[in-house]
Design brief:
With 345 residues, the chain is an alpha/beta fold. It is built from 13 helices and nine strands. A hairpin with a 2-residue loop joins strand 6 (169-171) and strand 7. Helix 1 (2-33) runs antiparallel to helix 9 and helix 12 (312-325) runs antiparallel to helix 13.
């Protein structure tokens, strides 16, 4: 029986370890590949992501690269550049004037802000004049699409282009303007900055022109909804503690197995005989023995019997027999009283 229990616990430990491993793959796998993040996030490693751009800039000497998981405030100086990738052009073109003021304040100390839009395949409907057109004097225009590449996974070309006059500098798919000592760059298509775009186009000059003379490059992840939460999962990923958690789970399973089973062979000794308890008669005898003395026992019994006696003559006869023998011979008195009780009259 012990061997079967040990086998069951061993199987439980194996299955528990497999379950922990499976949960780790389900929970951590999407985070490792970046599938849970939006397109053009620097945390994605698939063609839709921008992690290749992040790691390429990080490998450059003299350049510090980091991610932003909180609200944007200001860039520190001319050496700072911020990339905001994967922005919806239609929604961004309708931003309020207050938002445009925040963009201007962001680069007021000399920083560089790069806003790259998602590729657009169909022209947007014409609307009334928008705040970005009035304040920044730039208009979003859309060409007629030359073809349909919706099935390619990542749109390669966008119909969006910019129509603006001085002081904007229009260079193909980019528009650049100085705001105070800083600069804002609008990019009509984010595809060249994606993992797939970098592999196919290999346009290092385009990336260098966007980043400018930067010594610190920031990738804004907050606008994707990716913000710091201080979760346990994030700490585990940061310090690579997934393996430690698996080991702890295995040790816990082994401890439970060791506590429930023994590695020693079972003892073969005979079982001790069961100890029988007392019945009701023995219990009453023990109770009388403790509560009533031997000399008073007969008197107590007679008194209790007298409460239910139905014949006065029989009662008197028994009382005579008890008095005749007295307390010195309680057994003889009991027998005489019992005989008198059985006599027929």
């Amino acid at each position: 029986m012990r061997t079967n229990n040990g086998f069951v616990w061993a199987m439980a430990v194996v299955l528990g370890t497999a379950l922990v491993w499976g949960l780790e793959q389900v929970a951590m796998g999407p985070l490792d590949t970046g599938d849970v993040y939006p397109p053009y996030s620097s945390l994605r490693t698939d063609p839709l992501g921008a992690k290749a751009l992040y790691e390429s800039l990080e490998a450059m000497p003299g350049i510090a690269v980091e991610r932003l998981y909180k609200e944007r405030t200001t860039l520190d100086g001319p050496g700072d550049s911020m990339f905001v990738l994967g922005v919806d052009a239609g929604g961004w073109s309708t931003v309020k004037e207050k938002t445009l003021e925040e963009y201007e304040k962001l680069v007021e100390h000399g920083g560089r802000l790069v806003i790259a839009f998602l590729a657009v395949q169909k022209p947007a409907a014409s609307l009334e004049k928008r705040p970005v057109e009035e304040r920044w004097n730039i208009r979003f225009r859309y060409r007629r699409p030359a073809g349909d590449d919706a099935g390619s996974g990542v749109p390669r070309e966008s119909t969006l282009y910019f129509d603006a006059g001085p002081p904007w500098k229009i260079d193909g798919r980019t528009a650049e303007k100085s705001f105070g000592t800083g600069t804002i760059v609008l990019v009509a298509d984010s595809f060249p900055l994606s993992n797939q775009g970098l592999r196919e186009m290999e346009d290092a000059e385009f990336v260098a022109r966007l980043s400018g003379p930067a010594r610190r490059i920031i990738f804004d992840e907050n606008h994707f909804g990716v913000s710091e939460s201080g979760s346990v999962t994030k700490l585990m990923r940061k310090y690579r503690l997934e393996g430690a958690v698996a080991v702890l789970a295995l040790v816990a399973g082994l401890f439970l197995w060791r506590s429930a089973s023994s590695f020693l062979p079972p003892r073969t000794g005979e079982r001790a005989d069961a100890v029988a308890g007392r019945d009701s008669l023995e219990g009453m005898t023990s109770l009388l023995h403790r509560g009533v003395g031997e000399k008073a026992l007969l008197d107590v019994c007679f008194a209790e019997w007298s409460k239910s006696a139905d014949r006065r003559a029989r009662k008197e006869r028994m009382e005579q027999e008890i008095r005749r023998y007295g307390k010195q011979y309680p057994v003889a008195a009991y027998r005489a009283a019992s005989k008198a009780l059985l006599e027929k009259k």
